[in-house]
Amino acid sequence: MKVIDKLNKFLEEGKPCFSFEYFPPKTLEGVQNLYGRLQRMLLLEPLWIDVTWGAGGSTSELTLDICENSQNFCGLETMMHLTCTNMPREQIDDALSRAKAAGIRNILALRGDPPRGEEWKQVEGGFGYAVDLVKYIKQQYGDWFGVAVAGYPESHTDSTDKEEDIKHLKAKVDAGADLIITQLFYDVDIFIDFVKACRAAGIKCPIVPGIMPIQTYAGFKRMTSLCKTHVPQCIWDQVDPVKDNDEQVKKEGIKIAIQMCKKIMEAGIPYLHFYTLNLEKSVTKILIGLGMINKEQLGRSLPWTQSCGGAGKRLKEEVRPIFWKHRPHSYILRTGSWDDFPNGRWGDHRSPAFGDLSDYHIYNLHVQKGGYTIDPLGEPKSQQEIYDVFARFCTGEVPSPFNEQPLSLETEVIKEKLVKINKQGYLTINSQPAVNGALSSDALFGWGPKDGFVYQKAYIEFFTSPSNLQKLVSAAKNFPYITYHAVNQKGETMTNTKSANAVTWGVFPGKEIIQPTVVDAASFIVWKDEAFGLWRSKWSQKYEQGSASRTALEAMISSFFLVSIVDNNYINGDIFALFAAEPTNETTTATTTATTLPVAPAVLHV
Question: Span 442-470, mean pLDDT?
Answer without folding.
Answer: 95
